Amino acid sequence: MSKYSMHLLVCGGTSCHSAESDVVVCNLRDEIEAKGLSDKVQVITTGCFGFCGKGPIIKVMPDNIIYVQVKPEDAQTIIEEHVVKGRKVERLLYRDPKSNEIIGDSKHMSVFKKQLRIVLRNCGVINPENIDEYIARDGYQALGKVLTEMTPEQVIKVVKDSGQRGRGGAGFPTGLKWEIASKNKADQKYVVCNADEGDPGAFMDRSVLEGDPHSVLEAMAICGYSIGASEGLIYVRAEYPMAIHRLKIAINQAHEYSLLGKDIFGTGFNFDITLRYGAGAFVCGEETALIHSMEGLRGEPTIKPPFPAQSGYLGKPTNVNNVETFAAIPVIILKGAEWFSKIGTEKSKGTKVFALAGKINNVGLIEVPMGITLREIIFQIGGGIRNGKKFKAVQTGGPSGGCLTEKHLDMPIDFDNLIAAGSMMGSGGMIVMDEDNCMVSVAKFFLDFTVDESCGKCAPCRIGNKRLHELLSRICDGKGIPEDLDRLRNMSQVIKDTALCGLGQSSPNPVLSTLDNFMNEYEAHVKDKKCPAGECKNLMEYVINAENCVGCTACARVCPVNAISGQRKEVHHIDPTICIKCGACKEKCKFDAIFIR
Amino acid sequence: MSQIKSLADLKKKREELKTGLINAIESKNQVRVKVAMATCGIASGAKPIMEFLTEQLEKRNIPAVVTQTGCMGYCYAEPTVEVKLPDQDPVVYGFVDLKRADQIIEKYIKTGELVDGIIPVNYLTIDSKE
Prior knowledge:
The complex is a heterodimer.
Chain A: E1 6-11, H1 14-18, H2 21-34, E2 41-46, E3 58-61, E4 65-67, H3 75-84, E5 94-95, E6 102-103, E7 115-117, H4 131-136, H5 141-149, H6 152-162, H7 174-183, E8 190-195, H8 204-211, H9 213-227, E9 231-237, H10 241-256, E10 261-264, E11 269-278, H11 287-294, E12 318-322, H12 323-335, H13 337-341, E13 351-358, E14 364-369, H14 374-381, E15 391-396, E16 402-405, H15 415-420, E17 429-434, H16 439-453, H17 459-476, H18 483-498, H19 502-506, H20 509-517, H21 519-526, E18 542-544, H22 554-558, E19 564-565, E20 573-574, H23 584-588, E21 594-596
Parallel strand pairs in A: 1-2, 8-9, 8-12, 9-11, 13-17
Antiparallel strand pairs in A: 1-3, 3-4, 5-6, 10-11, 13-14, 15-16, 15-17, 18-21, 19-20
Helix pairs in contact in A: 2-3, 5-9, 5-12, 6-7, 6-9, 8-10, 9-12, 16-17, 17-18, 18-20
Chain B: H1 7-26, E1 31-36, H2 39-43, H3 46-59, E2 64-69, E3 81-84, E4 91-93, H4 98-111, E5 118-119, E6 123-125
Parallel strand pairs in B: 1-2
Antiparallel strand pairs in B: 1-3, 3-4, 4-5
Helix pairs in contact in B: 3-4
């Protein structure tokens, strides 16, 4: 077919590109031409290999050899040795840092592949609107196995033994949750899937619902069998129309095959699933608020106990799990608890899906084994920081989480380590920040969100967060006083201790973690009235350097608020009382005469 | 659609589907194209790409099945398209615009020549041996 007998795939990902992979490509092409091989060997640039720390990377096909840290001058060697003589260039093969063993062929590619897809096993693989494709990939086998070969107790034992913990944020053991719900006696019980994904920057639940809806339906039925429920409800936000559309199709198709409905697999087990739409309130991700919203009441949390497992939807025992938690269940049943519990760390088993966002090169959805380090996620899979800037912090756990910094980069990520480091797993959003992000503003941004989303039921959250937000605004405006820093900490602690639900209890986390890790930035704002990252507009002043200004009037013409005055060919002046700090003048000036003070 | 009444039914169905899907595609030497069509993919323009591929493959008389699929995870490289030629491992292309879609048909699908923008597989699956 192909006229080429060999392909050289050169990584053109942003990280490799900045390590001169483009020059490598040019040199390879020149060398190929010089050797008269243009009609046999082709050079292709590719997307990221997810192994950026060792870039630039070249993969030779069909030999399946990977070369790492290839420099432009290595092009000649690769062509002469590998392509012409068929000999591997040993010094460019990857060496395992521990064993010093050379790993260059496809047999040991797990070294290069940091990701393991369990929850995302079908996402991007099957057509989510065709149940047959799901069945062809072992779909509904787990449900069949559970209904025909296992007792509810056995199912719960498998889930417990697997060590799976809830992926919604808090990390409560899934098997234990099922067990509690199963032990409560009632004429009717409910299985609820929490698809009210609300963390800014998190989109894994949407991706699973859109890419593999049947896995969630199957798992809900399995859960229903083990706790003794015949009804399932999916609480999905109305802002996810595509997820809703595909869920509806999936439910209908499952019904047509009798995989949902009455007498499933001829076992007499009945299970049905309906959808409930949320209006997108963040607090409705909290399980009691979610249940109230489904009942048609205001989406407000209530004190636990009673837990939903005792008295949930319509006062009946209810088991609430997150989308990602459910999506892993069929695999756990089919592959066994032992298989699953071998992945991950001692107390956090399996994999976690993360949504990488912010100032990172490879924005995307990844699934990694628990225990991976932040460094591997950000600098290998994520391709490092955009525009070659310096890494500053990563926010995990959304508005309830905290910031992790340089010193946490090599910490294995699991539920407990993240909490010990002052953050949390949350739903798995990871927002990466670089040197240009002001950490006080970051804390303010997340608090903005919680103030907006507070349901207003309890005073600590309703009033306390508002006051916290005012303090932060004052500091960002340059009007903070040194006592504010203590006040921030005290108030945060009080809110944490006294708020009614998880939203309030965790809302001061971004403030506390930035106080802990970036006290110097807070102090700079309060004492020196400076924003080190240059983000807080009220703490900057645009000034014209009289030595460089030639009076070209370009800045005055571009200023949207006419804050710049001065005659042609004379030094101009910016009126700080009018200036809105948009930066347009600085961008326009050709003489580097405008700077920020 | 026939109903599935027992686990044995389901297993039979799975085998039928597995061989059926493979036969249907391999026997006719069909090319299988998947377009990542989650909300994010559609927002970055996957729909016109899918329409273009469906239309042009037919017009250019290439036996192919074009289907939609969910998120492949490469948000930074959307729209993404996976192409599986008969008897070969699937290849994912990122940053697919109409021009690249045309190249994929003309070069990769017709002659097997690789095109820029390949996204290497950087993950293991539950069936991986290691």
